[in-house]
């Protein structure tokens, strides 16, 4: 195991933090080269889909018929195919449900929330999961299949040879979950106030599992966290929905004349060329639309070329706005940025959502590659969080409505939460929807990389982005996780990560920020990151491809960085333990002896009793009787002697000419020599950013590369020869290396400064008589059905 190898490499406690990573990475081959680029025999499978979908909005049910053409581009002969049935995760018998754990006991007793109880009731009331109607070949002949939890194996009538294709059909249906209650990445949201629904459907159809050169079939069961890796293909999808619905979907709308009014079509054409969002469906029109009753239906047709998945949203509540985007990439095609949202999301969404989509496309295309698709969409589907699919993202955050005044306002948290989540989810259109990493195994390859670029986009939106809620752009934000007991290496498989957010998002994003800003510098990093992105767009990279590409394109050895940040749970804590100051000795006793006297007096305090005697006016005998003075009262141990001078002359005579020149130069320059001791307390080797403050008031910044730790990863001493005297040294003054303990970063040590608030001591005691006199509130209709407050249970299980 790479982690074990990194910790125990030799006998004793010595560790080589700079041990080359190639000994642990997969051996390069004709599919994946040592440079990190795809090999000349690289291959991946392909799957093209044609689907007819029908949304039963009243019955909360989706039915589908699909034809899949699977292309075997591998060198292997296949006797069966594997498909993903992600909706099976909601079956009561699924691995995910059976292994769901309860929250730890709190305050000595078990507990259950209203939300947990409601979810269990929903799963009991409705049968969820994929109902497979038929599986046939292109000619209608039945194909045998086996369902294994969230996977389905189709046995082929004959082996599928390399280079061959196979077409099959699947008819299926499933009940749509109430996402508010059951959770998950898709479903429907019910609005109680006006009895309307908003549907957002994803991971809803049987999808081809990936067959890869590094893992064969990727058919690990879907447990909820490890998302998916899929095959690219073309989609042709017809979606039949109620006639009053507006539909957003992956791809381009093919039949606008059949589903849009002339006014909507005209607005859409104008929006494509607009430099700010324009309404296609206005808030007033959406409000009127959700109040109308239409029992008819419409079929919306979409095509999506070379994508790895398909998702859609449908509702009679949608406001729709759009604008054209010109990419910050000279070869980028125009993109139609769009947002779909209910009136409950106003005024926040019309102000920021589509602008955030456009900003993401412009920023990401600048740092990776031109966005290749014609549309990019943001759909409001819940009140927080987000999820991504090709060309469409489901995003949260809404304003709040004051119950008394009815006025709608939004907080800074909602504003920056919305902008941030849209940037994040639209950013996923690049990673992993185009750079097709395997999320089932390595979540950080899409979440971590994407969060890193998201943070770049944050600071190109505005300075100090999001400080109202938190600032994810500072490396210091990850230190509490990196020193916690629940940390696991970033390279841990997705479903085994204990603290998912910090491990999969924040820590890898912080690592890449440090790599860009501190270790490599922007020019080298941006070139290498862009090279990696372009190499692997529409392909499936692994971690080794990323590590190798970044080194190959930059010319920087980063094995120590990948090993420490991604394969271990070490953290950064570097102690500037001590600093010693010297001057170069000339050896000349007439110069050095007076300096030695001054240093002795500086370092040896005058006796306190002697000071007090002088303060009291007590005169010494020598002061009273000057005749007692002799040679030793005029001279001391620091008085130069002829013997000293002769010794110096002999020294100079014995030096080589270049040595005499160096000594003379030192006397002339008067340099200061400093020895800085650093202790690596956290285990993670890092560069040493130093801020030097000189006696004349000037300052200097210097960066010492991480390679200073290559001979000793626990403690090193750095010598500096400087022209000016230093009065203070600070390690990591810009907080750029995620140092967990900054109290030991300065020399001399800094005094920790903060503020204290006063408080009153008050013991609250229960007054049963007063409590009984409180007026009993009237019970409201429906009370107790919502919320997620904890309901304690007695040991017997009774509420």
From TrEMBL:
Family matches, as InterPro entries: Peptidase_M1_dom, Peptidase_M4/M1_CTD_sf
Any Pfam family: Peptidase_M1
Limits of the Peptidase M1 membrane alanine aminopeptidase domain: 362-565
GO MF annotation, one: metallopeptidase activity
Keywords per UniProt: Aminopeptidase, Hydrolase, Protease
Name of the protein this chain belongs to: Aminopeptidase
């Amino acid at each position: 195991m790479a982690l074990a190898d990194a910790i125990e490499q030799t006998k004793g406690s010595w560790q080589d933090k700079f041990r080359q990573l190639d000994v642990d990475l997969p051996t390069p081959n004709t599919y994946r080269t040592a440079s990190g680029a795809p090999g000349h025999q690289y291959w991946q499978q392909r799957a093209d889909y044609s689907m007819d979908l029908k949304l039963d909005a009243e019955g909360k049910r989706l039915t589908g018929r699909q034809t899949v053409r699977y292309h075997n581009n591998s060198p292997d002969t296949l006797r069966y195919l594997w498909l993903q049935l992600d909706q099976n995760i909601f079956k009561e018998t699924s691995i995910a449900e059976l292994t769901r754990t309860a929250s730890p006991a709190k305050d000595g007793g078990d507990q259950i929330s209203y939300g947990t109880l409601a979810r269990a009731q929903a799963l009991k009331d409705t049968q969820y999961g994929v109902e497979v109607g038929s599986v046939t070949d292109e000619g209608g002949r039945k194909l045998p299949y086996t369902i294994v939890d969230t996977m389905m194996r189709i046995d082929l009538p004959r082996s599928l040879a390399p280079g061959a294709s196979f077409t099959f059909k699947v008819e299926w249906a499933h009940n749509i979950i109430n996402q508010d209650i059951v959770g998950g990445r898709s479903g429907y949201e019910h609005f109680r106030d006006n009895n309307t629904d908003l549907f957002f459907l994803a991971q809803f159809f049987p999808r081809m599992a990936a067959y890869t050169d590094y893992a064969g079939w990727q058919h690990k069961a879907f447990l909820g966290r490890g998302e998916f890796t899929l095959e690219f293909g073309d989609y042709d999808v017809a979606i039949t929905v109620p006639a009053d619905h507006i539909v957003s979907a992956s791809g381009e709308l093919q039949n606008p004349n059949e589903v849009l009014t002339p006014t909507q079509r005209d607005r859409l054409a104008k929006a494509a060329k607009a430099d700010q969002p324009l309404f296609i469906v206005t808030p007033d029109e959406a409000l009127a639309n959700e109040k109308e009753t239409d029992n008819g239906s419409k079929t919306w047709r979409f095509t999506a070329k070379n994508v790895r998945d398909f998702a859609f949203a449908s509702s009679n509540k949608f406001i729709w706005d759009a604008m054209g985007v010109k990419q910050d990439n000279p070869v980028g095609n125009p993109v139609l940025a769009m947002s779909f949202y209910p009136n409950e999301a106003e005024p926040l969404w019309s102000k920021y959502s589509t602008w955030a989509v456009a900003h993401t496309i412009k920023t990401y295309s600048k740092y990776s590659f031109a966005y290749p698709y014609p549309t990019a969409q943001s759909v409001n589907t819940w009140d927080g969080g987000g999820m991504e699919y090709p060309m469409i993202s489901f995003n949260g955050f809404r304003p709040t409505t004051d119950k008394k005044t009815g006025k709608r306002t939004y907080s800074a948290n909602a504003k920056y939460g919305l902008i941030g989540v849209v940037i994040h989810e639209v950013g996923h259109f690049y990673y992993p929807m185009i750079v097709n990493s395997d999320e089932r195994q390595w979540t950080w390859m899409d979440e971590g990389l994407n969060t890193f670029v998201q943070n770049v986009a944050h600071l190109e939106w505005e300075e100090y982005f999001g400080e109202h809620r938190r600032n994810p752009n500072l490396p210091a934000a990850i230190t509490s996780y990196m020193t916690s007991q629940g940390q696991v290496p970033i390279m841990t498989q997705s479903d085994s990560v204990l603290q998912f957010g910090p491990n999969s998002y924040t820590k890898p994003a912080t690592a890449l920020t440090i790599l860009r800003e501190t270790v490599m510098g922007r020019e080298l990093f941006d070139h290498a990151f862009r090279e990696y992105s372009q190499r692997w767009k529409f392909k499936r990279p692994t971690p080794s491809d990323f590590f190798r590409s970044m080194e190959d394109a930059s010319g920087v050895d980063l094995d120590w960085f990948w090993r420490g940040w991604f394969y271990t749970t070490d953290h950064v804590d570097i102690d500037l333990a001590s600093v010693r100051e010297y001057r170069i000795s000339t050896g000349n006793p007439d110069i050095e002896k007076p300096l030695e006297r001054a240093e002795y007096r500086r370092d040896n305090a005058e006796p306190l009793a002697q000071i007090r005697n002088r303060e009291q006016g007590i005169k010494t005998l020598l002061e009273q009787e000057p005749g007692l003075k002799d040679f030793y009262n005029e001279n001391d141990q620091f008085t130069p002697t002829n013997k000293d001078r002769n010794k110096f002359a002999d020294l100079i005579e014995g030096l080589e000419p270049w040595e005499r020149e160096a000594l003379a130069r030192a006397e002339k320059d008067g340099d200061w020599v400093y020895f800085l001791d650093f202790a690596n307390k956290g285990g993670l080797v890092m560069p040493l950013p130093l801020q030097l403050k000189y006696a004349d008031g000037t300052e200097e910044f210097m960066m010492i590369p991480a390679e200073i730790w290559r001979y000793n990863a626990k403690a090193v001493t750095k010598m500096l020869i400087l022209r000016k005297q230093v009065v203070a040294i600070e390690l990591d003054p810009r907080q750029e290396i995620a140092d967990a303990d900054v109290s030991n970063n300065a020399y001399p040590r800094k005094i920790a400064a903060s503020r204290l608030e006063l408080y009153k001591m008050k013991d609250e005691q229960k007054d049963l008589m007063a409590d009984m006199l409180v007026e009993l509130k009237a019970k409201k209709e429906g009370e107790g059905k919502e919320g997620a407050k904890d309901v304690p249970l007695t040991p017997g299980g009774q509420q």
